[in-house]
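hey so i finaly got around to running the thing on Potassium efflux system KefA protein from Cupriavidus basilensis. pasting the sequence first so u can double check i didnt mess up the copy paste, my clipboard has been acting weird all day
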Amino acid sequence: MPIAARPPNILIVARRPSTVRRAMAIHANLRDCRPGKPISKDISLSMSKLPRLVLSLVLVALLHLIPTALPAATADTTLNADAPATRPPSRADAVAELKRLQTEQDRIKQLASSPTSGTQLEGLDDAIHQLASDVDKLSAALTPQRAQLQAQLDVLGPPPAAGTTPEAAAVAQQRADLNARKAQLDSGLKQAAEVKGNVTNLSEQIAKLQRSRLKNQLALRSASILGTAFWEPLFAPSQEDQQRLSAFMGQVTPLWGMAWQPGRQTVTALLLLLAIGVWTIGRRLIERALAWFCLTRLPESRLRRSALALATVLATVAATAIAVQVVCFAFVPPGELPAQVQDLISELGKLTLTSALIAGLGRALLCTHHPSWRVPALADKVALAMRPFPSVLAGLLLIAGTLEQLNRTADTSLQVTLLGRGLVSLVVVLTIGAALLRANRVRTKLAAAGERPEARSTFAGLIHAGVTVTVVASLMALLIGYITFARFLTYELVWIDIVLCSLYLLTQLTRDVCESVFSAHHPSGKVIKQLFGLGDSHLAQASTVLSGIGTSLLLLVAVIALLTGGFGTTPSDLLNSLLTMLGGERLRSLNIMPERILNAVIALSVGTCLLRSVRRWLDAELLPKVCMEAGLRASLITLFSNIGYVLIVLLTLSLLGVRWENLAWIVSALSVGIGFGLQEIVKNFVSGLILLTERPVKVGDMVSIGGVEGDIKRINVRATEILLGDRSTVIVPNSQLISQNLRNVTMSNSTQGVATLLLTFPLNIDPEQVRELLLDSYRENEAILDKPAPSVTFSQLAPNGITLSVTGYVGSPRIATATKSDLLFEILKRLRAADISLSVPQTLRVENMAALGA
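ok and heres what it spat out for the 3d tokens, dont ask me to read them lol
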């Protein structure tokens, strides 16, 4: 019988893939049948296969009905799901839309990178919001299509495994088409996500440009705070502002109603009570717990004071953050919120934490409850006078900042915006000004009463003068109508105060931590001494160095915070700015990257410790067993240390990313410097290497050079230390030991010294008697060796007498001088006893004599 034609693209619905493949095979054979053509053998009737055949025929009939029934079912499903009635975009439409979005993104990025006016920035902001909306619409349109394709792939199931019955070609083709379409949709969704991320970055850049432009437009003048025009928006707002505020409140009011609706009132009330309890009682409990830890676990030093101050700040900020989170649980539903409401909640959270930080820093630095815990040198009466102002400033900033944020979020008019900024500036100016006046008044009273106020440094005086000038300038700006300028000054003043107070507290904490950890009387210092074999002086040096490094890093972070941050900047924002600066393209072009610096520091530290350990092992264990000579051991250890330090420096430079081809200019500069001013240093350095390798002299040798005689104590890279007999040390450059005549008494490894005396006697003495007297003196001295025996030599015969040379050997050259002294004492004593005198040198004397005639 003839088989009716059907479309090639069909949707097969079945649970078992084998059944689907069987049905598709039957359908393909039936479709290929024409009138008069016999049916394939694969579908020949058989009684044993009759049930399976009946099921296959039923599936084939369903396959013929699906193409016509599918649109109706899809329409019903769409209507039931309340989805939009618009037709989903086709593949070409999606690709075209993605290209348009990317082109629009590139255009906005190019405009944002060039100087723009305020109107252009607002236009770019609107374009950014429209682009984000288009991206969301495209993603929302492509996501259901991908889900539908995934559902069809799940129906078809995975391809048959190898060795099983192959599936029909139509099924394989359909699976390949579905996978290709799914890959295209995945690529489109990925590109849309990338565009969305770029849109977010562009929005942040435009916001920064707007803030920068606001700072550049500080000369905008408006009504003074003393005029009625400034306060008019507060009592008679315009119709447009009322509509915008009403529209915004229409988004916020449902949240309040949902929080107090029946069934949730109890939960909301309990959460509010919990937030109040955390902010009051919880904060005190956290402070007491941290104070107990600091007083019982930390050493009795200045570390306790700085740690207690930091604990006060952390407790205040942590309790406030927890309370804010509890309030958010009470009033913010778990679902998605409008973008304006989310921005308002985020900004209010930052403002609350900043206000908590201000209050915490004030309580920590003033510390009126425990004056002995106070870190700065403030008089008690001054601290008591300034006690309420940090909390008052934090509270007023929170209220005024909330009003300003509401104006910004609701996009109110310029008059309302200036009113909010003016209120914030007025609050800050009055609070800080009152604090300064009260503190100065107390200091004046203390001085009048004869009490000495606190000692203040020059830097503190400069800060006090700067704050006073800023407050006066802000107040004058408010009075003459420069509201934006006053708001800028006050916000910068608050931010600078926050940064400087935090820097002072963290700097003191860093110094106290270093002093306590590396203290010789603290357990940590004792452990460090035993672990690294350091002395007390080394611990003090390590404490000073680490304290300096920590202070420098904190100062760097403070400078970055002052330059890139502002009021409301969170630690995460500051960290991002710091990472952006450290990982910038300029630093990367110079191969200056944090990871390379860290690796180089680790390699330098580990290499130095390892080299010192090996050096101690060579000096104490290996070389004493291999080489018995102390001078050779010292030379080998010095040579090993020099080579090791050179290798460590090369490894450190390599880890820093220094390329030797880039150091050509350094080599050129060194060559010029060597030719002019460094030739002596290089000559001594090369001479030191020659002394360590050829070893004409070594440590322990007794040498004489340029009238200096003593023992070589140390051979350094540049000079050699010679220890004299009076225990003083002479520093001789290495080049002199190579280029000048040097007498090495102990070079031949001889352990004997020579004590020789030259004595001159008159011509009328008995030489034999004198000879025996001298020999007896040498033989009876304990330092003179018997072998070789002492001897007397007739050295010279002159008109003024005869010269005899007496020679005797001693056990060491270093005792020859002392032995000579003892021998001279003994010889002179015996000569006097024998009535033998030494010869007196003959001299010609010419005297003025009187004339003969006289």
